[in-house]
Structures are given as structure tokens and as C-alpha cells.
Automatic annotation (TrEMBL):
This is Thioester reductase (TE) domain-containing protein. It comes from the Bacteria. Residues 7-248 form the Thioester reductase (TE) domain. It comes from Candidatus Nealsonbacteria bacterium RBG_13_37_56. Gene3D superfamilies: NAD(P)-binding Rossmann-like Domain. InterPro entries: FAR (IPR026055), FAR_NAD-bd (IPR013120), NAD(P)-bd_dom_sf (IPR036291).
Amino acid sequence: MATILFTGATGTVGSVLAPLLKKEGHRIVYLVRPKNGQKAEERISLKEDVIWQGDITLTDCGVNISQRNQWKGKIGKIVNCAASIKFKESLSEEISKVNVSGVKNLLHLAEDLGIPEFHQVSTAYVAGDSSYFTEDDFDKGQTYRNVYERTKKEAEHLVRTWKQGSSSIYRLAIMVGDSETGYISFFDGYYAFESALWHLKQGLLAKGEQELEKYRKEGVFFDSDGILTLPIYLKLSSISTLNIVPVDWVGRTLAKLIDVPSINQVFHIVHSRPSRIRWINDVSMRHLGIKGFYYGDSADYSSRFLLGKLQRIFDRAIAQYNPYITHECQFQVVNAPQALLGDYEWLPDIDEAFLAKILKYAKSVDFGKKGQELKAVKV
């Protein structure tokens, strides 16, 4: 078993992956940055493991020289799950500092400590606007839809050209809840779209009868079962898929691949048979209690002020995700099944029962906002 320097242990991937690696007998050295007044040791409650307070955006990742000298030659792998998943171009400097400079600093730390393997968690969406992307593909002249995709591609370049050791790069699809419990620690990607509609519904539920009557006149109303008719337009492609994968499957697959010696390969950690995005949304809306929506571009709302307001609120909420609901690349899946042979776990098709499970959990924690004041969108 290896000693692994692990980053991003508090994130969606890391919080699932690190316990699995530990369960398999690996020794974990956690690199954790302080946050919101909490020290690293307070953010990771695993007293039997080694915790370094540091920050990948700093020189030497903020690891002091005595720690570096103590551990030189004693760590076999780095697993980097740390990343900024923000999309806004206005935050490009901050995002690049984590996703690009952070990887550069980790690679330098690996050289300093004599760590021979670097395992980088990336995204399948380095494919940008490509139609098809193999695990050997890297730069096909694709256009990147946001700063996140661009910086993750730049990070891959750093890892691919690293000469002081070997690497494995894992390109992940869109993660959703645990296949058994529905649990997930962060609600972005798929959830951001459904959350926007859910919170529109909550905002309407908070209104009085007189106000709801005004909405009814514009076609927005609740039936006797509490189902909301919401005749806004959703710009979902009629042919695109949405590649969603359960977070527990991602964790298990990564844990197995990290045990495989790195030989400078890329692995697509994606669903081999992704479902159509409109089907996923149709099922999701049934379980959120919303109907009456349309697919296509927004209509003329000049005579329906309130409905137009709802449309604008929704459009603003999901604007950064528009590239993912109108086009999705298809991804080759070859290297992981070949590396793991019979130990590779092929995902079953996404079905309604699974979507119901992950949405039940999401609703139970108000899409990650439970414990705060219920966020009912002002409409």
C-alpha cells in the first residue's frame, strides 16, 4: 500500500475518494488549507492521519521546509482533487490561480519530495465544443465555453508534459448523488438547473391567494395536488445527452485506478450510455412537481408581465450552464475497462428510480441550503 499526498479532501470527489483509499490500506497525508477561520485540523476530523496545513496556490504549497525534509522520499503518489469549479470570466484570475498555478505548485512539490506518481482529477469537458473526444485527444482546436474548461485543459497540459515522474489524468463527467442514498455534498451541475426551477416554485408557494390569482391569469397555477403549471421555456437540446454519474461510482472507480501504476494515461470517468437531457429533465420535473413548461427559445411576454419575470429569473439563474444544455460531446470509454479488466464497473442506464432518489435527497436539504433560511426566489 502507498503513502498518498491528497488534496481536495473536503470537496465532492475528495470527500468520497479519500475514505475509500484509506479503507484499502493506503496512508493518507492530507494537504488542507484553512478556511473561514477553521484550521486544517478542524476541517479534517481524522486524527490518525497526517494533516498538513497548506494551500496549493502558494509556493511549495505552503508546506514548511521541516515537513518537506521529513517526508522526502516517503510518499508514493499525489492525488489532486483540489479545483475551482467556478465559471465566471470575471473570476478568471482566481480560478486560474487554483486550477493552473495550483497544479504547477503541486508538480514542483512532487519533484522536491521525490514523489514518482501524479494523479490529476480533471473534467471530461476539456473537450469544449467537440462532438467526439477520445482519451488520447487533447487539443483538437476545440472552443472552451468558460474559464473552468480552459484552465482545466491548461492544468492537463502541465501534467502531460511533466518529466520527473509518471501521471494519470481522470476526466470526470457531471457528478450527482450516491446511487444508494442520493447523498452529495455540493449541488452544482445538474442540480443548479433543477434547483432554479424548485426555488421558483417555493417562491410562488410563499405568496398569498390574491397574488397567486394574478399569476393564474397568466397561466401559472397550482392544482389540487400541489403540482405547479409553469409555462416558461427551457432551452434544452432535443438531441443532446447529459452525462451524469453517481458520486459513489466515481469514487470506487478512481480508487481502483489509483492502485494501478501510472503510465501517462488519460481515463474518461463517464457514463458510456448517457441519457437524453430532455428525458432527464422530464423525469426530474415530475419529481419536483412542475409541469406545463415548453422546450425552445423564450416567447414574447409583452402581454404577460409576471410570466416574463419568471422566465427572466430562471434564465439568469442558469445562464452559465447554457452550453451544457444545448450541446454535449460524446466521450470514448476504453482505458479504464482495459486497466481494470473484470474489476471495472459498467454503469447501468440512468432510470427514473435513480433520479427520484437523488432529487428526494436534494429536496430534503433544500438543494444544500437546509440549515439556512429557506431560499424562496422573490417573484
